[in-house]
Specification:
2 copies of one chain form a homodimer. By secondary structure, the first copy, chain A, is of the alpha+beta class. Chain A has 14 helices and 25 strands. At the A-B interface, strand 2, helix 2, strand 3, strand 4 and strand 5 of A face strand 2, helix 2, strand 3, strand 4 and strand 5 of B.
Amino acid sequence: MAQKVTPRSEDYSKWYTDVVQMAELADYAPVKGCMVIRPYGYALWENVQAGLDRRFKATGHQNAYFPLFIPMSFLQKEKDHVEGFAPQFAVVTHGGGEQLEEPLVVRPTSETMINVMYAKWIRSYRDLPLLINQWANVVRWEMRTRLFLRTTEFLWQEGHTAHATEREAREETMRMLEVYRDFAENDAAVPVICGRKSESEKFAGGVDSYSIEAMMGNGWALQDGTSHFLGQNFSRVFETKFLNDRNELEYIWQTSWGVSTRMVGSIIMVHGDDQGLVLPPRMAPIQVVIVPIWKSDEERAAVLGAVQQVQAALPGIRIRLDDRDGLTPGFKFNDWEMRGVPLRVEIGPRDVAAGQVLVARRDRVGEKKQPLPLAGLAERLPALLDEIQRDLFDRAVRFRTERTFYPTTYAELGEAVERGFAWAWWCGSRACEDKIKGDTKATSRNIPLQQPGGTGRCIVCGEQAAEQAVFARAY
Amino acid sequence: MAQKVTPRSEDYSKWYTDVVQMAELADYAPVKGCMVIRPYGYALWENVQAGLDRRFKATGHQNAYFPLFIPMSFLQKEKDHVEGFAPQFAVVTHGGGEQLEEPLVVRPTSETMINVMYAKWIRSYRDLPLLINQWANVVRWEMRTRLFLRTTEFLWQEGHTAHATEREAREETMRMLEVYRDFAENDAAVPVICGRKSESEKFAGGVDSYSIEAMMGNGWALQDGTSHFLGQNFSRVFETKFLNDRNELEYIWQTSWGVSTRMVGSIIMVHGDDQGLVLPPRMAPIQVVIVPIWKSDEERAAVLGAVQQVQAALPGIRIRLDDRDGLTPGFKFNDWEMRGVPLRVEIGPRDVAAGQVLVARRDRVGEKKQPLPLAGLAERLPALLDEIQRDLFDRAVRFRTERTFYPTTYAELGEAVERGFAWAWWCGSRACEDKIKGDTKATSRNIPLQQPGGTGRCIVCGEQAAEQAVFARAY
């Protein structure tokens, strides 16, 4: 028998950990708060990277690499920044056998280092915009951790751009938010809400933060990516200036934006079911698994001949042939279902005789397998993968719709966030936000860019409210 | 006037730093011993990564990610390992505002962490071989640093494999050495000598180390990659065992192998000349730069029309159009020569009228530009890039041949290592190796796999010697 994951209804948290570990996506490291990303999970992350990196380059960004260590004094320059991040610092105090004169912080994020370098590289408006991204590891000390979602060390990309005007920097902030939405919805099949973070939830040191927020399978929210308009907050303290086209010295305008290995957690929790992982085809390390079935050597030869035909017909598809000995077909079916492979192709002697294969969709596990003629697979399988990609997205949208509520009373809000997202008028005050958090554990996820229009009364205090916010429990 | 690099003959070391900085490959970081890899240098590294990663996957390896922090106690388990690496440790003593019970070392290499995890994952011979690679940053505290060649933090890949038998692990060690040779020679156009490291130069904690060694433009050696047979040294101290097919518990056999951002330094020093960088086409972030030339708006339209034709004809080529305003064509020519772009295409009004472009090869700077008909560029330019790739390799082989010596006396050895590589019989004793180092600063680079055959007398002590070693000054 293949291993079984805990059903989601029984214990969602246990279900998640089971899926991550049984599908061999990641494992706990023997260092507090750290994880090991195993090959199957890393291949998923590589597909996330490829989808984002392609979009970054298409929008004119270049990759670079900045140091892991940041002198403590850099991080202390921007007051809000250090306040926000200091509790999570990991600090190197000794190097090469000696105590360091100045402690080095393992980067929690790189705005400060970026500003020191940009101040050196940027001379005039001709050097702008400067559009740089970095793929890197970062460290933020965590006490309560969860694989992929919250770990002391994690992998991410951090974009850091410099502009001559506020307008350009604000445009860049929104451009990258849209890049994230496009990736999340079209590649990861994860529907997201784009919006502005509240003052209390924004990036420490920024002016405005924006996020994409997705709904997980238990109705909780996960922030899948953030894009920050930093204004001149960092350039003022780091003296990052440029000569504008009127020959005057001016501080640069900046943005930063990031997506991390959390995105993998999001893919798991948005699509997974009680059989385990369900992967959208564009992200799946293995898109099609072929399980050959035979008894005699004669059958074996015929079946493997057909397998080769299928493989040859699908050069652009990521295929795995599961010809492991000593395992029953049933075991293999369960195993690959648990690992979320979008399509399973079974080929036995009778299929070969009939010139067909049997195809099972992971997202419709339990449904009748579909016989498909061998001859047309080169068109049918890629089309089926596209269909699955769309269906997973649609299913996630439907789920979110079912779990989205529009409470009009404070009591209704409390009930709504037990089950999903609550859109509600909010006056914008910290006090009302804190009250909701205190009473329900739900936080304001963001203030969606797409508002219903009009105005209303704050769901907490009843004062005039110009915007609705989305409230939800969140990872 | 574009910036000029210091000529190699005047000061090789200054030439190197000039090229790295003026071509904007890298910059000094404001943290002792660290560097910033700038976009152009990082794009070069991305091409190195792609060339290696493709080969790793083709030989059955998968990527994964292991933690940055390694508990001090792990590193202390293997005696030689800790002795070799301890002087270079960077140590995290504080996390989350508190002093840690056990200090964490920022990974200098991951054999110890790998063994802790492999001990958890490997049960039986069915789990073997386990073939994993990691792309990561590592930290080894350095006092004297040089951009790309020796920095406290650097980027690399580290392969870590586990096998059921010594034979398989030894085969893997040699397979990856060959992968490195193939990449270096065919993609980086860097000829290398494959060989075994001496006892004093081998990996701390391993059984046998192998390297690829290249000759830089000043005749010095650079170790471009290493592949280690670790035997059971780590599995014995970490109790990394498996059930063999006779149902007995056995220690796994291991290898590890790595190539780092040093490879970028090697590409710079093997191919560069007094005009700056010279990049082999397969590694070049920009393979062809187009410099359009016009005076009137009418000329501009005609020239840009031809430019579009060229771009459209070369979809698989990495092309940059340099249409920057306010810079003379001459400035641009020098600028792109300094940055090592393999081919420059000039298009002016007279070229358009003649239905041609002018092509200049970076590796033959100063030679007459070649007029090529617009019509045939789709075949000619890729062919020219292939030709440049081959010519750069051949030129590097010729240079190495000229600077390779076969001294028969100790005095000749001393003269040889002043200029390049010295192949010499060596008895294998540490004393003789140390004497050479003390007298000449040259070290044994490796004991080449391809030996001249026969035996000889050690060039130092005159005792019987079974093998020749290559001695050279090294970075």
